[in-house]
Each structure stands twice: as C-alpha cells, then as structure tokens.
Design brief:
Elements: E1 9-14, E2 36-40, H1 44-47, H2 53-72, E3 77-80, H3 91-102, E4 104-110, H4 115-127, E5 132-135, H5 144-151, H6 159-170, E6 174-175, E7 178-179, H7 212-224, H8 241-254, H9 256-259, H10 279-284, H11 289-301, H12 307-331, H13 359-371, H14 376-390, H15 394-404, H16 410-421, H17 438-444, H18 465-476, H19 478-482, H20 488-494, H21 499-513, H22 528-531
Parallel strand pairs: 1-2, 1-4, 2-3, 4-5
Antiparallel strand pairs: 6-7
Helix pairs in contact: 2-7, 3-4, 6-12, 8-11, 11-12, 12-16, 13-14, 14-18, 15-16, 18-21
C-alpha cells in the first residue's frame, strides 16, 4: 500500500494490552500536540486461543482503566472498544484501518512481548510504508540482547547460573561479591507441606470489587464470549497501578514471611495460600519487577521476612521470569513447534470443565476455571505433570495454559509450559523431564485422602493414574531417558518390573488414554469444544 502524502500526526504510539505503563519507552519524547496513542480491543485476541472469561476480562478491564489514566495525563488517545461499530476484529485489520484514518508519519511502540504480535505490527507498518520505531522494554532487568550475550558459547542454559549473574549485576541480596547468608539458594529451608491441621489462618489475598468500568466489561464478555470457559462471579483482580501496588504491599507485609516455607504446598479448596498473586499485574506492566524485588529485599533487611522466603520469592522474579523471557526470544519461532518426546495425544476435554474424578486435578481445574489462577506447583506438578505423562501434544497443552490463566502472556507461558512442564524442547530449559508418581501429590497435599485412587498402586482398578502413567512414561521413553544421567536411577527401576507387571501398567495406561479412567461420567468423550477451536 503506498504511503499517504500528508501526515496528520507525527507519531502514533501503539500500546498493547500487556503494556499498561505510563512510563514505558514508547512515551519518551511524547508531545500531546503532535502525537497520539492507539489502543484496540479485538475479538481475535480472545479467540487465537479459547481465552477464558477471567483472562479476557482482566485484559479488557485493565486496558479501559489505563485509557482513563491516559486521558487524565492529557495524552490524546484513539481507542476502539470490542463492541464498537465497525471494529475490524483483529490487531492488524484495526491498526490498518486507523492508519488510513489518522495518517501518522510514524508508528512507535515498546517492544511487544509476543513474537506473533511483533510480526503483525511489522507487517502493518511495512504494508503502509510507515517507519516503525520499536523501543526497548525497560520493564525487565535483562534485555533480550543481554540474555543472548549471557547465552553465547554455553552448551546449556541453566537458570541457576543466569540468576546468580543477575544477583551480582543488580546487587540484589548481595554483600560485595557474596550472597547474603553465604549461599545462593535456600530450597532446603523451603517447600514444606502443611501439617494435618492444614494451612490455618492464612492472611487473605487483596481483592477489588469490580467498579462500573469492570462491570461493563464483565457483562460484555459474558455476552460476547458466552461459550468460553470460566466464571466471573468472583472476579476481583487488581486492574490499575494503584490496586497493583496495594496488592504488593499487602503480600510483603502479610504473606511473604511464610511464602518460602509453603510455596510448594497445596490444600483442597484454598487456591490462594501464601502466594503473591502478582504475576498478572507484573505481566500487564502495572508493576515494575524492580519495585517488587526491592520491597521484598527491604522486608528481609528490616527483619520482617526470613531470608529463605525472600530469596525464594526474588528468584522467581529476578531469576526465573527473566530467564524464560530470554529463552523465548532466543528460540522463537521454531520453539513453538518443538516436540522432543513426539507426544501426540489429545488434551482431555475435561481440562476445560474440571469433570474428573481425580481429586487433585479436579481441585486445580475448578479453581483455574473459577479464578483464572493456580499456583506454580499446581501448574507444573498436577495439570502439567498429568499432560506430560499422558503424552499430550505440547501445542495443545500450551494453548490450554495460554487460554485459562489471567497471567498468561506467550513470552512467559510458552517456555514454562512447553519447556519446563512438558520437556518438549528436549532439555533447553530443564535438564530432565519433571515426572513423579501420585506419591508426590500425597506428600504435598491431603488430596489423596479424599480420592478414589491409591497413589501407591501402579495397576489395577484403584491405581492412581499419575502412578500408572509415571511407570508407563518410563517404559515408553526408556531408551532415551537412560542416556540422561539425572534419570538413570528412575530408569533402572523399570528393570525391576516383571513382564507381567509391565503389561498390566501398559493396559491400565491405555485405558486412561481412552478416557475410561479419570473422567467423570459424561466427560470421557473428547468434544469439539475441548479440542478443535484452540488446538
């Protein structure tokens, strides 16, 4: 398309739904007399994957609140609502239409988080003959280029080494060149299970009753995306910077001291526990990770929170979060197609409904669909573990995680799911597949007490599907896993099984894959809702 001859704007600043930061690099040099901001709600972003209602509401409501902030700051804004007449339905189509209408001389934006979105914006700019100024995302501790420099020449990309480098570089929990407390990692002091009495009186998470703006979005989503999964009757996530800051301060004060000790613990019917619940606000850019890390570090310095909890929390942000972003941008777009274990099974339809008779999965899925949230151990060692051992195609697992969680943005979700959870990258992120029997879940929660399955049994009608699939996974991948030093002991255990025991495991695993085990009545048949539109 030829460039229009006369520009009516100097710069049109493209702001995406996960770039809600008034201090972002895109706004450097902004002049309200010459420039304008562009934002758009488009249906395509909720249907690329079958986005759940909580996730869609979070993005749209946060965008509308940010738009109010732009107006208050005196920054001209061109904003297209989802229900606006003539909404083009996709980012590329809406931006193209608005370029023709607004006639800017240039497009400006902070670097997008997702590879697909970056290609989309680049293509629109090129098709319209417009320069595109893509600026560094200052939200992160480590730039994409800096991570690439860290990775250069390394045979493997292990988070622990990157994390230590970041600690030194940013002087976080450091005394000179040495870590505070004399060690880098306090896992040995963390990750306890709750006792028989349960978690006790856990301080509640900070909630925010939907205001008029959010209620309008909830009504719109319930109508426009009525068939999408999830519920909205308990929606209470922070949607503004002020709310996000309040959530952060309450977490630091009330739950951080016990965060580390119980970060891997689970308890039926209690989704929140001692976790921070700040990832969505961080990924929307309502919070800056530097202020979150600084607040946690100050809590230790002031004697409010123990070092083990503070270090464990900071590692998730300064270490893991930055690390997965680096891996994403180094590996895309080919990363999305990785399937090292040649997993081809379909994701069970009950992942979208929670209709399973496995107590741990039923609880994790119910809270996911109700709140758009599950803690990291539920994602890795319950929903993710089951899909891995079942042999589900990793792109289907990725699509589900991206769809159902309010904090899911592809740059962070894809490596965590495809790499860490499903081992589909063959070891780029993790040195081995994270597999376990049902006894792991029994150790970290009381789920097994109320479940019809026995985690100690690998075959038979009472056998826990996790335990059956664990042994089946080892048997199916025995040759490949035997070459992995970290899997050698687990693989050796397969040799202790008799041929008859192996046959019983294989038969039970086959029944699980056919949907004859694990699904509640009526949930065993794969549905088009569960498998077609987002696979």
């Amino acid at each position: 398309m030829p460039r229009l001859s006369v520009a009516e704007l100097r710069d049109l600043l493209v702001v995406l739904g996960d770039q809600l930061d008034l201090d972002a690099a895109a706004f450097d040099g902004f002049d309200a007399d010459l420039d304008a901001v562009w934002m758009a709600e488009v249906a395509d972003e909720s249907t690329q994957v079958w986005s759940s209602k909580p996730r869609t509401v979070l993005f749209l409501a946060a965008m509308r609140h940010f738009a109010l902030g732009l107006h208050a700051a005196g920054r001209p804004l061109h904003y297209t609502r989802l229900d606006a007449a003539g909404n083009a339905g996709s980012l590329h189509a809406q931006l193209r239409a608005d370029i023709l209408r607004l006639r800017p001389a240039r497009l400006v934006m902070t670097a997008p988080g997702d590879w697909r979105v970056l290609q989309t914006i680049k293509a629109v700019a090129e098709a319209n003959g417009l320069p595109l100024d893509i600026r560094e995302d200052r939200h992160f501790f480590c730039s994409v280029r800096e991570f690439a420099a860290h990775a250069e020449g390394r045979k493997s990309l292990r988070m622990e080494y990157f994390y230590r480098e970041q600690r030194k570089r940013h002087s976080v929990l450091m005394i000179g060149d040495e870590p505070v407390g004399g060690q880098w990692n306090f896992d040995a002091d963390n990750r306890e299970a709750f006792g028989a009495a349960g978690p006790g009186d856990v301080p509640p998470r900070t909630t925010f009753a939907p205001d008029a703006v959010t209620r309008e979005v909830i009504a719109l989503v319930n109508t426009r995306f009525a068939a999408h999964p999830g519920r909205l009757d308990s929606f209470a996530w922070p949607l503004t910077r002020a709310q996000a800051l309040q959530s952060m301060h309450v977490f630091i004060k009330e739950r951080l001291p016990l965060f580390g000790r119980y970060q891997d613990a689970m308890w039926p019917g209690d989704p929140w526990l001692y976790h921070a619940h700040l990832s969505a606000a961080l990924n929307l850019k309502l919070l800056n990770p530097r202020e979150v890390v600084a607040a946690a570090e100050a809590a230790h310095r002031d004697g409010h929170a123990p070092l083990a909890s503070v270090e464990g929390f900071i590692r998730q942000i300064l270490g893991w979060r930055e690390y997965v972003r680096g891996v994403y941008w180094m590996q895309m777009p080919a990363y999305l197609e990785r399937n090292a274990l040649d997993a081809q099974a379909d994701l069970p339809a009950w992942y979208w409904t929670g209709a399973t008779d496995m107590a741990c999965l039923r609880d994790a899925l119910a809270q996911t669909l109700t709140h758009g949230y599950a803690n990291h151990i539920q994602r890795l060692m319950v929903t993710g573990l089951y899909a891995l051992m079942l042999g589900v195609n990793p792109k289907q697992v990725h699509a589900w995680y991206l769809a159902v969680y309010v904090d899911a943005v592809e740059w962070v979700e894809l490596p965590n799911t495809l790499g860490m959870s499903q081992y589909a990258d063959g070891g780029v992120m993790g040195s081995k597949p994270y597999i376990a029997t049902g006894k792991y879940i029994q150790r970290m929660s009381p789920h097994c007490k109320g479940c019809r399955y026995d985690p100690a049994q690998r075959s038979g009608d009472k056998a826990c599907p996790f335990t059956t699939l664990y042994w089946d996974f080892l048997m199916r991948h025995e040759a490949a896993l035997a070459r992995n030093p970290r899997m050698a002991l687990q693989v050796k255990n397969v040799a202790r099984l008799t041929d008859g025991q192996k046959q019983m495991v294989s038969e039970r695993a086959a029944a699980i894959r056919r949907g004859e085990v694990g699904a509640e009545a009526g949930a065993a048949v794969q549905s088009s809702v569960g498998l077609g539109r987002h696979a």
